[in-house]
Please model this.
Amino acid sequence: MLSLDRRWIFLVEVIIVIGALVGPFSTGIKVTPAVSSFYDAIERSDPTEPILLAVDFPPSGLPELEPMIVGILRHAFERGQPVILMTLQMEGVAISERIVNQVERETNAFYEETDEARRITMGEDWVNLGFRAGFAAVILGLGDEIRNVYNTDMYGNYLDELPLMQSIHNYDDMALMIDISWSSTPESWIAFAGAPFGINVLTGITAVSAPQYYVYLQTGQLGGMLGGLKGAAEYEVLINRSGVASKGMVAQFGVHVFIVILILIGNVAFFALKGKRREEHTPHLPDE
Amino acid sequence: MRRQIPLAIALVAGLFGALSYFIQDPTVQDIREQLLAWLRLIGAFAIGIGIVSFLRNHGKKVTRQVSGWAFNAVAIASFLAMSTIGLFGGISDSSLFRKMFDFAQVPMEATMFSLLAFFIASAAFRAFRARTKEATLLLLAAVVVMLGRVANIDWLSQATEWILAVPNTAAARGITIGVGLGIVATALKIVLGIERSYLGGE
Model:
């Protein structure tokens, strides 16, 4: 049993993932306190003040983190709350632009369908500042004056020419900041934006990094957290917009159960083999 | 003298960086802003150094034709292709650069990350054994968290939250405080000139 060819494991896993994604399955999603705090922080914030959304991850984080950005943008646009996108990671520029354009198109199509006059537009409802090198220096600089760090957005428009940015100068003019990340960038946002300037910092983070941020949740230095695909799925439940994260949870459910079964089988086989070996090495005394 | 000047700069800049946080005088804040701008410039130069280092390392392997040099050549060619396309064709949503990013880089990176799920499953079967008390505890915690994150069962979800919020946080807090104190100690050593390895040679 222990010498099972691992390709069989891969095959079963592929079948589970494809079956879960293609099949008509769904799974119940329970909302955890971290996600509920995240949602409440946005709901409680002043919708006239923008959300600063930092897209600090490369493409490998997309499966877990893209549904979070989509959810946040949908939530903000639905509330009429503007969003300022930026990134400390170069690849974040292309990622944020694609997602914000997609959500803008989808939201405007919905408004058109429902005969609503409102439209989401760049410059009024969202602005994409793009990338700046310097990491902590960028975060600290935004606390003094955004224009010292970004004099234009990523398309080359001067910030003062963009209606949304005319009255925005630093963290004091923003409702909150959200860092979507796959590494330690939320810690930098907490240390260099949350602590010195008092802006409420929230994060969306890959599942593997999420456990290290419970420390900051408990101290209140993080206002809320979306942890991995599960966090994104919980957030979809709260904003009432089921999406790829909710569907992905079916695949995650199948794979997690499969891994637990593998652990159990592996351990049963291991102890059976150990018992057998012990029996073989125990000297048999002759019958009296 | 070659060492004293950098040490003096580190002392002045370090003390000023720490104290300017507490002094709200406009002149001090203006200087602080200027220093932050310099820091951002240094960050931008670091990207340039990264590119030079990347090209030198891969270039050496290609010219010496070390084992697997073809992969190094692909890395250099990909870098040059993306840079040229981005510089001359722009990076707008409809550009070739963006198409290469969305349809080549994104799937490749996603594939690399997705493969982890398969290796984790295989490793779970082969290596995750309850050999010792500590390993058994780790295994039980892993099983509870894995199931608790996906199954809609109250007690399992509560147990998962407890593991994450109590033992996990206790350990993470210890590490965080340790790292924080380490950062303060190292910063002080650099500012006071005790730690000089950044000058090279020692």
